[in-house]
Design brief:
The complex is a heterodimer.
Chain A lengths: L1 E3 L2 H16 L16 E3 L2 E9 L9 H8 L3 E8 L2 H14 L6 E5 H10 L18 H6 L10 E13 H6 L6 H7 L4 H14 L6 E3 L2 H9 L19 H15 L13 H7 L2 E7 L2 H9 L7 E5 L5 E9 L6 H11 L2 H11 L2 E2 L2 H5 L1 H4 L11 H10 L11 H18 L3 H16 L1
Parallel strand pairs in A: 3-4, 3-5, 7-8
Antiparallel strand pairs in A: 2-3, 5-10, 6-8, 6-9, 6-10, 6-11
Helix pairs in contact in A: 1-3, 9-10, 9-18, 18-19
Chain B lengths: L1 H51 L2 E4 L2 E7 L3 H7 L2 H32 L6 H13 L2 H11 L6 H8 L11 H29 L3 H9 L4 H12 L1 H16 L3 H7 L1 H5 L10 H10 L4 H33 L1
Antiparallel strand pairs in B: 1-2
Helix pairs in contact in B: 1-14, 3-7, 3-10, 4-7, 5-7, 5-11, 13-14
Classes of the chains: A alpha/beta, B mainly alpha.
């Protein structure tokens, strides 16, 4: 039986919880934890933003531009490096109702949980004019059943395969991006087959074919409309053939020693990029910026981008405005501007995050974009086409993010510990049970 | 003048009362702030944590609590992760505490010699303690990195195979212990040093006259002389080891840090608590782990007391 408790008690618990989480929440220092958002100060509207990773608004100068165009607005953006840390802090603050920013970033893996459990804490965008340019499936992910829109989409994650041309050449494989794409056209199995050839023929030293089995797993799973949950919200990961198929192929790759046994975005991965310890990585569009930055000038032009075997969507984010914000209307205006087609196109050109705006995707200026770092690959064309291949329906689940992490760890067991795949699956299932139960 | 007399006796009486309140009551007033703060920030959370641990409650919806009585405890008892975390906490605790205290003892002994620049060395031994856990753990994580870490590089230089410090159980636990040892050895050494300096010099002189070597002096004069300090550091280290959290969390980084490695190979009780609360968002289960940790500490100290009492009963 569920009982409701008074809000003051709730607040005390939340305060305790926050204290616990804050000890870990790096990158949130210096902010006033007692209040929500900005406010009006000296005739200026102060809007605070909480973001993670490289979302591109600050990095590409959009925030500055907005301030210049709206001299009465002062934007204070705080960016956490790691999304997991960011989301934990966001959860505790939402629970406590304190320390929130006016605008909060929401990662796709968390969208469903927010829609299901915290819809009342976010402002509605349904009535904001000029926000009808998004991909329908993107917009639907952040819309509640009764039609409340909790945020606006930033980028999406169509995928390609990033590969090292010099290594491919040494392994006797084609290097031209069109021909490379042909090698594995239509089937991820072929991508693994190419890996076996690579392992056999590459004589240039200790280089693995791909970075991590989890990358391949994610790419495959995200190619299906239903992943870990079905549309009714039931957990189906253990019955979904798509998940099992992805698991088995990723396990094949791990057992065949095709991976560098790294964990994506964890220590070891970045130096792996810089030192070239692997030849390919399944790369959602937003990963290009990371690869370029970490692999560095020395590897410029060695990397290239080829079309992935199948379309899928990995990642992407939203910007929401919290209901309590004292400057709600101004914040909503800012979000609408930041996610408008022109701004999304700008971010794509500057750092490669693919627009979630249908209108931006179709604009010629997006289609023409090339990446200098990846040997002038026509990323506008490649990712634009990949975006069209994303299944029209994308069913999200409440604990998608957590389940994804758990599967990555399960694959790590096979890769690093040499655990048998069935046993690793058992362990993963047990952990998911714990995490969602 | 009776009226005046009564008023003075009244005043005197009132004075006596005030005096009594002052004498008897003031100490309570002086210690009160601590107990008020203790009640608000230690006792209340403790009680409330136990209340939460009897419920099923999620972080996102703290206002919805479902009464489950002792289900969380039963579940924890049957959970292999709990026993795994308990085992790891003990093994990491032992391989970090024992070498740490032995090294601290040796270091204190050396610092106790008359030597040039002793102040510098004493301050230097405290520097790791002053470093934040986060900074220290991050640096060590880089040193222990599999592909490009300095330690594997050094192993390679002498012809040894690289070790996967994070993925394998014992290497990971040893690496984490190294961080703990590095941080706390100097601190314990200074505690020992302070105690050693309180040992009267004539005991050493007497021992020297009896022909005791430096080593004999150390084992027969120094160590017995600082026994109570040693017990104190053991108690402190035990509490510290039970709560071990920051080092393994940062050592693993990201999702692996939270779960103490892909195979939970270095998940401590502190990490399990965090995983339940801030990854699975199950506050009830998280609170249960917290209470289990607390009960464990109580158990350890009761056992220690009992052993001590048995021993003193036997010797007397």
């Amino acid at each position: 039986m569920a009982t409701l408790h008074s809000s003051s008690r709730r607040r005390t618990v939340a305060a305790l919880a926050t204290a616990g989480a804050l000890s870990l929440a790096v990158g949130c220092s210096g902010s006033d934890e007692s209040a929500t958002g900005g406010g009006k100060k000296d005739g200026k509207v102060v809007i605070t933003m909480g973001m993670y990773g490289v979302m591109g608004f600050k990095e590409t100068g959009l925030l500055e531009q907005y301030e210049k165009e709206n001299p009465n607005v002062d934007i204070k953006a705080e960016i956490a490096g790691d999304e997991q840390t960011y989301y934990t802090a966001l959860q505790t603050r939402l629970a406590g109702g304190k320390g929130l920013k006016d605008i909060q970033g929401i990662e796709i893996g968390r969208a469903k949980e927010i829609v299901d459990t915290q819809a009342d804490k976010f402002a509605d965008f349904a009535d904001v004019p000029g926000t009808d340019h998004f991909l329908p499936w993107k917009q639907s992910q952040i819309t509640t059943e009764d039609g409340k829109v909790l945020g606006l989409g930033t980028d999406i994650g169509p995928m390609a395969v990033c590969y090292r041309k010099d290594y491919f050449e040494q392994a006797g494989l084609p290097t031209d991006r069109e021909e490379v794409a042909k090698l594995w056209e239509g089937d991820w199995k072929k991508y693994v087959e190419v890996g076996r050839t690579f392992k056999k023929d590459f004589k240039g030293g200790d280089v693995a074919y791909m970075d991590a089995a989890s990358g391949l797993f994610n790419a495959m799973v995200y190619g299906y409309p239903e992943q870990y949950y079905n549309a009714e919200g039931d957990l189906i990961y253990d019955k979904n053939p798509a998940v099992k198929e992805a698991w088995n192929l990723a396990a094949d790759a791990a057992e065949a020693g095709l991976t560098a046994k790294l964990r994506q975005f964890q220590p070891g991965w970045d130096p792996g990029l810089a030192n070239g310890t692997f030849a390919t990585a399944v790369c959602p569009a937003w990963m290009l910026g990371h690869i370029g930055e970490k692999a560095g000038e020395a590897n410029k032009g060695k990397w290239d981008v080829a079309k992935a075997p199948k379309g899928a969507n990995w990642g992407g984010s939203f910007l929401g405005v919290v209901e309590q914000s004292p400057v709600k209307e101004e914040a909503k205006k800012l979000v609408a501007w930041l996610t408008a087609p022109e701004q999304q196109a700008h971010i794509f050109k500057k750092q490669g995050s693919v627009p979630s705006s249908q209108q931006a995707l179709e604009s010629p200026e997006v289609k023409q974009v090339t990446s200098e770092y990846f040997d002038n690959a026509p990323i506008g064309e490649i990712f634009g086409a990949a975006a069209q291949e994303i299944p029209d329906k994308q069913v999200l689940g409440r604990k998608d993010g957590t389940i994804k992490d758990t599967f990555s760890q399960g694959l790590t067991l096979i890769e690093q510990q040499g655990t048998a795949r069935d046993e690793a699956w058992e362990t993963t299932a047990e952990r998911i049970e714990k995490a969602v139960g | 003048m009776p009226a005046v007399a009564t008023s003075t006796t009244h005043a005197r009486r009132r004075g006596a009362l005030l005096h009594r309140i002052d004498v008897k009551g003031a100490p309570y007033a002086f210690v009160a702030p601590f107990f008020v703060v203790f009640a608000a920030f230690s006792f209340y959370p403790l009680v409330y944590t136990s209340w939460i641990s009897l419920h099923r409650v999620e972080l996102a919806t703290l206002d919805v609590m479902e009464w489950v009585a002792f289900d969380n405890y039963v579940e924890l008892w049957n959970d292999s992760r709990f026993w795994n975390a308990l085992g790891n906490t003990i093994t990491i605790g032992v391989i970090s505490t024992v070498p740490q205290l032995l090294m601290a003892l040796g270091l204190a002994h050396l610092l106790n010699y008359r030597m040039r620049g002793s102040l510098f060395f004493r301050v230097a031994s405290l520097v790791p303690y002053a470093t934040s856990v986060g900074a220290a753990a991050l640096v060590f994580t880089m040193l222990f990195e599999r592909d490009f870490g300095m330690i594997n590089w050094a192993l390679g230089a002498v012809g040894l195979d690289p070790v996967d410090w994070e993925a394998d159980k014992w290497p990971a636990q040893i690496a984490i212990s190294t961080i703990v040892i590095w941080r706390w050895t100097g601190y314990n050494a200074l505690l020992y040093l302070a105690a050693m300096q309180a040992i009267p010099a004539d005991r050493y002189e007497a021992a020297a006259i009896d022909g005791a070597s430096r080593w004999k002096q150390f084992t027969h004069v120094t160590v017995p002389g600082i026994r109570s300090t040693i017990v104190f550091t053991i108690v402190l280290s035990t509490i510290g080891a039970t709560q071990l959290f920051g080092e393994p969390l940062i050592f693993g980084q990201g999702p692996n840090g939270v779960s103490g490695g892909a195979d939970n190979q270095y998940q401590t009780l502190g990490l399990l608590l965090y995983e339940e609360g801030w990854k699975n968002y199950q506050m009830g289960r998280s609170a249960t782990v917290a209470w289990a940790m607390f009960l464990l500490l109580v158990l350890v100290f009761v056992a220690q007391r009992l052993i001590r009492r048995l021993r003193s009963a036997r010797t007397s």
